Amino acid sequence: MTATPTRPFPSNFLFGAATAAYQIEGAAHEDGRRDSIWDAFSRVPGAVINADNGDVACDHYHRYADDVALMKRMGLQTYRFSTSWSRVRPDGGAVNAQGVDFYKRLVDELLGADILPWLTLYHWDLPQALQEKGGWANRDTAELFTEYALTMHDALGDRVNVWTTLNEPWCSSFLSYTAGIHAPGHYSVEEGMLASHHLLLGHGQTVRELRARDESLNLGITLNFTVAEPADPNSPADLDAARRLDGQHNRWFLDPVFRGAYPADIVEDFRAVDAAAVESFEKAVQPGDLEVISAPLDSLGVNYYHGDLVGGTPSANPPRGGDAPTDRPSNSPFPSHEGIHNYERGLERTSMHWEVQPAGLTALLSRVWSEYAEPAGTVLYVTENGAAYDDEPVAEDGETRVHDDERVDFVRGHLGAILDAQDAGVDVRGYFYWSFLDNFEWAWGYEKRFGIVRVDYDTQERAVKDSGLEYSRIIAARALDAVPASVAV
Ligand code: PNW
Predict the structure, then answer these.
(1) Domain extents for the chain?
(2) Substitution candidate for ligand 1 out of 164, 224, 381, 455 with most atoms within 8 A of CB
(3) Which conformational region is residue 27 in: left (phi greater than 0), alpha (psi within -120 to 50 degrees), or beta?
(4) Is the peptide bond before 435 cis (omega within 30 degrees of 0)?
(5) What GO cellular component is one of the record's annotations (predicted)?
């Protein structure tokens, strides 16, 4: 007797996995590619754990055909990857045809395997030559970003339909220019604010230009979110801490993109911390910018890893903080962080020390849908969700196996959370597990493994983890329960 599949996914729902150029490609000095800010930052003593860098990474630049073949065997319907500005316009200016050619080969391989290419234009690898002119704190970078985007569209516009401008501008502004944790590793509230505006400006201009070229493109942006909950929903101080965290992390980007305005409460919170930074930011926001930034979008990518339980006073039982990757100093990425305290809620945590809370994804999708996406006619996709665990590979029958039961539960739990959101009326049409491969986890180097496919960095061998096998079964069944016991990968 065959069980009837329960909890099916709608027929238009896309199952995929995601990566980013600097994290997997390697070939950092090949075919005309030049340094990005991550190549340069990786050389700063103490910036990346074990002094790791992306020189080789997963060697995907040379192994892309095998990697695409593996995606195909696993049943992925779509693959979210990023193109490297540093390959395509190595110093931000002239086009490097060899760099463009790599992405043509990759896209052709995907199309040949019947996998939908989901292209992200900026996943943090700004050409170092542009950083030397101020990077994202310089308004010119927004213009150059659009020129680079148009180069990619010249090359791939006939074959790629889905274009995401930016991945997680919160990371490429505040984590990078204010907290000092990501490249270029600066510690400035002013630069963080300017970078966020210029990133969004680059996004909006690019949407406008691509739309003018081809109305049929699916255009979007990917943002990363937290779900900020007050420790005591009756405490005004806890509610205010949650408001400020939500405002600095989520609304700082959602509001300009969907409503054409930065959140006024957060601008004032920032002013109380650094009035000069806000003055400089207000000068940078020129008339018309917010209209450009709020250009209508087809899709919003939602990246969700974890939420935060916060209070306005220190908790008697604070969570053990995640360790910093290195001893290099860092600041808070939140300019207005005073009086926001994290609380422990006893949830399981991944090896990033991030809480596992699938219900947070349901809450996030529902909120973003009703407050921002639905009124704008924008569809949601979960463009990243995943977990790092201390995987233990084992040799069984001559094969490498990874029995990553926690990651199996993580994937199932979050897919269930998406079904819950759909049941509540949210139009969310896809899921991309982060990441397809173990890869260069930024300041954590190769220490943290997020993949559903294990990478042996000595041999570059790939091995599908149990989570990858389970994901393949779910994709084959197109349902969460009653998945077949096995699937050929
Ligand atoms: C995202 N934080 O990054 C990125 O899009 C991926 O490239 C990355 O590998 C993945 O999540 C896992 O970390 C983030 O410190 C990195 O809050 C750091 C933070 C958030 C997102």
Answers:
(1) 7-487
(2) 224
(3) left
(4) yes
(5) cytosol
Task: Report CA(112)–ligand 1 centroid distance (Å).
Answer: 30
CA dist 430 and 451 (Å) reads 18
Nearest ligand 1 atom, CA 439: 9
Quickly list DSSP for 26-55: --TTSTT---BHHHHHHTSTTSSGGG--SS
How far is ligand 1, taken at its centre, from the CA of residue 103, in Å?
23
Residue from 384, 436, 438, 440 to probe ligand 1 pocket by mutation (most atoms less than 8 Å from CB): 384
Write out the H or E segment, with its range, that includes residue 466.
helix 466-477
Structure confidence at residue 486 (pLDDT): 63
HSE at residue 149, side-chain half, CA atoms within 13 A, is 28
User: CA-CA distance, 478 to 408, in Å (whole number)?
Assistant: 16
Q: Which CATH architecture has domain 7-487?
A: Alpha-Beta Barrel (3.20)
| Alpha-carbon span 192 to 335, nearest angstrom | 9
Name 163's Cβ contacts closer than 8 Å, sequence gap at least 6. Answer: 119, 121, 149, 153, 210, 217, 218, 219, 220
Question: Is any ligand 1 atom within 6 A of the Cβ of residue 224?
Answer: yes
Q: What is the pLDDT averaged over residues 178-199?
A: 98
How many CB atoms within 10 Å of residue 413? 17
pLDDT higher than threshold 80 for residue 81: yes
- Amino acid letter for position 385: N
Task: State the average pLDDT over residues 6-31.
Answer: 97
- Give me ligand 1 centre to Cα 172, in Å: 10
DSSP 323: P
For residue 393, give both structure tokens: 């590979």
Which atom of ligand 1 has the smallest separation from the CA of 20? 7
Residues annotated as part of the active site:
168, 384
Looking at this protein, which amino acid is placed at residue 54? G
Q: Tell me, what's the ipTM?
A: 0.91
Cα dihedral value 371, 257, 306, 168, nearest 10 = 170
For residue 2, pLDDT beyond 70? no
